[in-house]
Amino acid sequence: MNRQHVFLIALALLSLVSCKSPQGTYLAQPEAMQAEGFYLHPASGMAFPLAVGSFQRVNLTRYDAEGLDVSAGYNLLTAGAGIAATVYVYPSPPLVSIGSPNDVVASARATLCKNEFEARKREIVVAHPGAKLVRESDAPLPQGGPPNPGKMAAFDYEEVFAGQQQPLHSELYVFCYIGGKWTVKYRFTSPKSFDATDAISDFMARLRWTISTAS
Q1: What angle do CA 175, 200, 60 make, to 5 degrees?
Q2: Of 176, 189, 187, 205, nearest to 117 (Cα)?
Q3: Contact predicate 186/172, CB 8 Å
C-alpha cells in the first residue's frame, strides 16, 4: 500500500496541563479509593501492593468515573529524609490505524508519547512555580524487555516537604502504550540533599507491570 493512501487517525491529548486522558468522564475532584490490601486496577490489570520494597502505600486515587485513570502513592521514610512516589496508570493517547504499516503506527505512537511527555513536564512547571528542568533523557523499561524506552525528566524547586520549606528534586518517568493502550507515569520527589537514585531504581524494578497485553 502506498503510504500516501494510508489511513491513520491519531487523536492527541487536548489539555496541556492535566494528567487526564480524553477517554474518561473526569470527576470534579479526584476521589480516594479504599482497599484493605493488594489492589488490582480492573481496567488495565496493573497491581498495586501494600508495599514495594521499603516503600509503603499511602493512598489510592481515581480521576474519572469509569476508573480508567488511577494512581497509587507510596512513601519511603528515612532518618531526616524520605521519598514520595506516585504511580499513575491511564489510557495512552488514542490512535486508530486502518491498514497502516507497522513502522507508520510505531512512528505515530512515538510522536503521541513525546507529546504526552511534554504535557506532563508542563504540568510540573505549572503546579510548582520556579521549577527548573535540570535533566532529560530516554528511560529504559523498568523490568527490561523489548526496546520501547520511555522518557525521564528531572526538576529542582523549593517547596514544603515533610513539614519544612526546603530545596527538592523531582523525577518524572513516562512510558506509553504498555499492553498496547496504557500509559504508566512515575513521580518521585525528595529533598535535594538526599540521593534517591538507588531507591528509585529499586522501586521501579520491584513494582512489576501486570498490565494485560489483551486489555
Answers
A1: 70
A2: 176
A3: yes
Helices first, then strands: H and E counts in the chain: 2, 13
Rounded CA separation 174/155 (Å): 14
CA dist 57 and 31 (Å) reads 16
Note the pLDDT tens digit of each residue in 164-181. 999 999 999 999 999 989
Structural domains in the chain, CATH included, are: 3-13+20-206 (3.40.1000.10)
Are the C-beta atoms of residues 182 and 211 closer than 8 Å to each other?
Answer: yes
- What pLDDT band is residue 143 in, cutting at 50, 70 and 90? confident
Q: How does pLDDT run across 34-91, given as a tens digit for each residue?
A: 998 999 999 999 999 999 999 999 999 999 999 999 999 999 998 768 999 999 999 9
Which distant-in-sequence residues (6+ apart) come within 8 Å of 146 by Cβ?
none
From residue 11, alpha-carbon distances to 97, 99, 111, 182 in Å are 11, 17, 11, 15
Three-state DSSP state, 134: strand
Closest CA to 42 of 24, 16, 14, 67: 67
Please say whether the beta carbons of 30 and 65 come within 8 A. no
